[in-house]
Model the fold of this input.
Amino acid sequence: MIDPQSGKDHTIVKALAQLKKELGEGAFRVVDDREASAYAVGVASPKQKGLLAYISAFDKPEGFYFLSLEFPPPPGSERSYAPAGEFEHVNLGRLVRLVRQHLRKEQGPVEERGQAAPKSAPAKPGGNKDR
Done:
């Protein structure tokens, strides 16, 4: 878990705290390969390698986030991941629901989105414009 003194923006610290509170201890691990950004973090399934949710608060109004969901790449793929959906503007409650749902999956689209992102190409820029 990232502590409040980590240099991460308070909105990222708040999102991680809410995820831990609602999903429980051990439900995800922080994958902070984006140390350069105080406004972004990854959380991954502790059980399935490659099941990841990327959370960013960069250039978002207070209380809103960008969320990108990733699956492990299909066997034989040259990609490092398979897109599973993008959400451009989600509040904290919806972010928690989407991350919970995603990290419990083995493979397949996030149902709340209503349609799967293509498995062989990245999700379109702009993603889902939820408000």
Notes: The first helix runs from residue 10 to 23. The two ends are 28 Å apart (CA to CA). Residues 10-113 form one domain.
